[in-house]
Fold this sequence. Notes:
The complex is a heterodimer of chains A (about 650) and B (about 100).
Chain A: H1 8-23, H2 29-56, E1 63-64, E2 67-68, E3 71-80, E4 86-93, H3 95-118, H4 125-143, H5 148-166, H6 173-204, H7 209-214, H8 216-222, E5 227-228, E6 231-232, H9 233-248, H10 257-260, H11 266-275, H12 280-287, H13 289-293, H14 296-317, H15 323-344, H16 353-383, H17 399-413, H18 419-434, H19 436-461, H20 478-493, H21 499-502, H22 517-538, H23 544-551, H24 553-560, H25 565-610, H26 619-641
Antiparallel strand pairs in A: 1-2, 3-4, 5-6
Helix pairs in contact in A: 1-2, 1-4, 2-3, 2-4, 3-4, 3-11, 3-16, 3-20, 4-5, 5-6, 6-9, 9-12, 9-14, 11-16, 12-15, 14-15, 14-19, 15-16, 15-18, 15-19, 16-17, 16-18, 16-20, 17-19, 17-20, 18-19, 18-22, 19-22
Chain B: H1 7-27, H2 31-56, H3 62-92
Helix pairs in contact in B: 1-2, 2-3
Amino acid sequence: MNLNYTIAVLILPFLTFVFLGLVGVKMKKKAAGIVGVCSMGVTAFIAFAAAFTYFFGTDQGQVIDGVRQQLQVFDYTWMQFTKNLVIKIGVLLDPISAMMLIVITTVSFMVHLYSLGYMDGEKGFQRYYAFLSLFTLAMLGLVVASNIFQMYIFWELVGISSYLLIGFYYTTPAAVAAAKKAFIVTRFADLGFLIGILILSYYTQTFDFITLTSNPGAVISSAGGATFLGCSAMAWAMTLIFIGGAGKSAMFPLHIWLPDAMEGPTPVSALIHAATMVVAGVYLVARLFPIYCLEQGTMTIITVIGAFTAFYAAAVACTQSDIKRVLAFSTISQIAFMMTSLGVASQMLDNGVGYMASMFHLFTHAMFKSLLFLCAGAIIHSVHSNEMTAMGGLRKYMPICNWAFLFGCLAISGIPPFSGFFSKDEILVAAYAKSPLWGIWLAVVAGMTAFYMFRLYYKIFWWNNPDYGDHKPHEAPWTMTLPLIILGLLALCAGMIPFGKYVNLARTVEYESGINWMVAGSSVLIALIGIGLATKLYLKENPKPDRMAEKTPGLWTAAYRRFYMDEFYQYITHHVIFAHVSTPIAWFDRHIIDGTMNMLARVTHSTSYSIRRFQSGNIQSYVWIYLIGALALATIVMLCVI
Amino acid sequence: MKFDLTILMYIIPSVIMFCCGVYGFITRKNMIAILISLELMLNAVDINFVVFNRYLFPGQMEGMMFSLFAIAIAAGETALAIAIVINVYRVVKNVDIRELTKMKF
């Protein structure tokens, strides 16, 4: 089976990006959009073909111990500096990267199609499609990366395309600020990632994923004895790499950029800030999972940060009034679920069910969260506001959107038979297997998830019937509703896939296929409680929610203001770092370094000014001076000789 | 009476010629005059070539050869210089080098 053609999924979006970027402005808007959609469709087709060939291939030696082996289907040495420092561009197919190919191309194709309707008539429509192609290229390059350096390159490309797309409405100051914030925060985290890569590859002498993960014990022992601040070098490396992932995946305390990133166009939020880019951190940890397994300290950090973030984001999401912010915090919370699931996973407990669960949740979450975002986009498109207060009773005006949104909410709440139920159930199983504490913690967060999602749903589609005046909300055009229908069906069925059969760790016994009814029952029960509570409070307009908020003013306001994390960062950056570190450095730079340079320049200038008379351009005077010089020289020589 | 031509008898006029050339080159303001001074220096050097060849290496011909060569080159060079001077004159109606400052920055 020859899978070399997989490289086309990188080449095609790249060519589209270059084409639309260079000649897009000369084209009609519609034509540029159609070029983008068609190219994405072909890319999706190739990616699906590659993934299915990979998953259902029956070649000898492809499945060992129930695990599909990694396949390096493309390898190209890009830059060779020394024997070990080689930067390669390759395509690595393994269960998780093939799964990610499907996720990214599906969501990206849906978003491309949806944007035809949503971005219709926007200024810079062609630029928008060029950037979408760039993002798709970067994200696909990231997941198929065969070595950690290639991953880092595409990781940064993803970051820059996210920056460009958040700041798409560059005339809005809020969008520009949000783009900068997203870029700087993730860049700061990527510094950790880079240092981690350098430490890791310094000791192991390789960037290659297959070499690294096939023998994790050797990786750990390669840095044997090297310690820093009481922890081994490898623990540092893995923790720093995780920090990079935490920045991209918006883990607490590096989550502050994601809610602001909602300033970008809504389809972009669906693609980048819900389904694909933000799970890159989870994917990174999963990619290096065999090494993380042996670093239990780092795994504990991942678990604790993940679990805390899940709770924190869910608490904030309960109080937000901007529908995209609610979805943003719910994304943070769900990604934290995946992170926690990876943190509690290990080879010993249930054969690494947490690893499988995390990837499963990533898969289902991408489908239902992009669905929710695209619905939110359709709602914003017809109501022209992000605020819940401007909405209400929309179920009568937008029936398709209503059903799609309901499907998404049921999926994220974990109600069977929707996809979220299956993946969340696996996560809870993994968490209970590690410790009941994490199990109960995540179950509570799952209940909160159900509550805030249905709060959102009722506030948009039920609650009250405001007078929309002349401008009645309307159903979106077919380019927007078609993706909603497709993703809605995916949100319904994606959980039926026997995921554990395809994505798993090496194991000795088969998974117990099926559902742990104890865990499943309790999680469904708690989700139903959350939904019930939301129904009671938000189905019909009533003063109860406001009264509850008034009764707990401190808590409610704190949650509404995101527990003052942004203010905290503002204080740290402006009053501590800028005032006490940056200002002295700036002074040193302006006065000492610039001063030295200015002095040199001034001395050179004044010297040359004083001697510029010699350079008259008058040849006769040159000859005269030359003659005198030659005569003087001759005289001196003669005197010496005599 | 026998009259021997010594080497000095050639070299002294040649030196005088050369000094005249240098003097003219430095002091004249007319481009044609400068060109003539240049030729004067060149001819002084040519004389030196021939004389030194004649007195130091009587059996050889290199000096003679080089002076012939230099005369030929000088002819070409003079033609070129004259052409430049004429063209300059056509543009600025003047051959006084004090006036030719157009190409200065």
